[in-house]
Amino acid sequence: MNIKDLEAKVTNQVIASLEAGSPPWHKPWVRDGSINGLLMSHHNGETGHTYTGINWLITQFSEYESNDWYTKRGAIKATGLDKPIPIEEFRKGTTIVYFKPMSKEVDGEKERYCIRKTYTIWNREQIIGLPDVEPDESMDGFDPHTEIEEMLKNLDLKGGVSLGGDRACYIPSKDAICLPKDSAFTDENERESTKAHEGIHATGAKHRLDRNKPSYAYEELVAELGAAMVCASLGVPLDKLQHTSYIQSWLKHLKDDTSFVFKAAADASKAVKYLTREVA
Question: What global pTM score does this model have?
């Protein structure tokens, strides 16, 4: 499958999911204890590398409970078997994207670009002979609330975080986040996802990532995806959108441009890395 075909396939999946009222990035995540760092997100079982951007979204579509994925070579190495993936499962591999940074000289200056290729991965549940996952005891006492609070502190907001009232928003002119008090939320998962959502918005400020915002709907999609990525990493399940009013606009953009969700997912991943201090 080439990149364009994959863009069309993923976009159609997102469209179908939104039209059915169940965004593909909103689903319970399984704690299988197999990786530290971004603990709950889908990842490469051999290297521990967490999938980001569009690959994060693609793996969210899977019906598998495990977040552990392998290439064919990785599965062979991990199991010691010549054919660890049964033929019926081999045919059901998941196509994701490999991004390779490149550079070339143009008029005496180095120009950077990226090569995109597709390759196939398989979930742990499709592979025979893998060793059992060892529970991650470092998760004992883990508190998502504390983690998200720390992320908001990482932003070093000039106007800080203001608590009270019935609105949640990021105010660019004041570089401040407004949130209802914790006690105002009827659901703790919604509380944490709301904080993550507004934190993602704040990463787009000019003195941070200076994110290009072609439309409010695009920025809301970035925030929705980014919040879902944060919550996935912390084991916080999501079951509803922050702003359902944007769905029709998203659908229009998705139907007009198959790269729309790919771009938004890439920006969301950059925002998450900033929020979690993975990048300066």
Answer: 0.85
